[in-house]
Design a protein that fits this description.
Layout lengths: L1 H13 L2 H7 L11 H6 L2 H14 L12 H27 L7 E2 L13 E2 L1 H25 L4 H6 L3 H23 L2 E4 L4 E3 L6 E5 L6 H23 L1
Antiparallel strand pairs: 1-2, 3-4, 3-5
């Protein structure tokens, strides 16, 4: 799931580079990430993986609360984590390429592309697809690496739609935080949406409490917790 998130998101970051460069003030050629971004997008899942390893070693397990509620919840959290991360990245990278104008999720008013909290229909569909791909990855590889009864194995297919929902959920949480707790303004000199105040910056939305990394961390944490409980209940 980590590799699917990494490779698919890295590839999408490079799609439509010219269009993204014009609207994104923080656009990086090649989509490079720094260590803080990597940490905030992987630390929670890594912690859950280590917890599972502590319980069962290297053995892969199916989602089955009748066998172990704790393992099922931990696995659900990992799936939710990467569904959120992948869904949000796909939503941002594909949504910005949409011809439709984004709407601020809190007011539904149209805003400039690149505004934190701005959403489009294509972006939300991309979030669902990004999450669904993570769920599909878990199911496909799980069929080869985990051994469980046929009834339990068949139930694993529910992971795909649940992961898609986690992708949407994470993207929506991210957008709500971005629209309220993250500053967005339009720089009249650079002609771009920026995330910091300045004499030539006109406020669009939000207050300067969280930066992009903080928003990602909180949205991932909340989605991870929600999916942990959901998977423990449903499986």
């Amino acid at each position: 799931m980590l590799l699917v998130f990494f490779f698919s998101s890295s590839k999408l970051t490079k799609v439509g580079a010219d269009k993204k460069r014009k609207s994104d003030a923080e656009y990086k050629e090649g989509g490079q990430r720094n260590w803080v971004q990597v940490l905030f997008n992987s630390a929670i899942a890594c912690s859950l993986v280590l917890a599972i390893w502590k319980f069962v070693g290297w053995e892969d397990k199916c989602l089955d609360s009748t066998e172990s509620t704790i393992i099922t919840a931990l696995l659900g959290g990992i799936i939710g984590h990467y569904s959120c991360s992948n869904g949000d990245t796909w939503s941002s990278e594909i949504g910005v390429l949409s011809d439709s104008q984004p709407r601020l999720i809190t007011t539904l008013k149209t805003v400039r592309k690149g505004t934190n909290g701005g959403v489009t229909n294509i972006g939300l569909l991309a979030a669902a697809a990004g999450g669904g791909v993570i769920g599909l990855t878990f199911v496909v590889f799980g069929f080869f690496t985990a051994s469980c009864p046929s009834s339990v194995a068949l139930k694993q297919l529910l992971v795909i739609p649940l992961a898609a929902l986690a992708g949407i959920c994470g993207s929506v949480i991210d957008s709500l935080l971005g629209a309220t707790l993250q500053f967005s303004g339009y720089c009249t000199i650079r002609k771009k949406v920026v995330g910091k105040r300045g004499p030539t910056v006109k406020r669009i939305s939000g207050v300067n409490i969280l930066d992009n990394n903080g928003v990602n961390l909180v949205s991932i944490l909340l989605t991870t917790v929600l999916t942990s409980f959901a998977f423990a209940y449903m499986f």
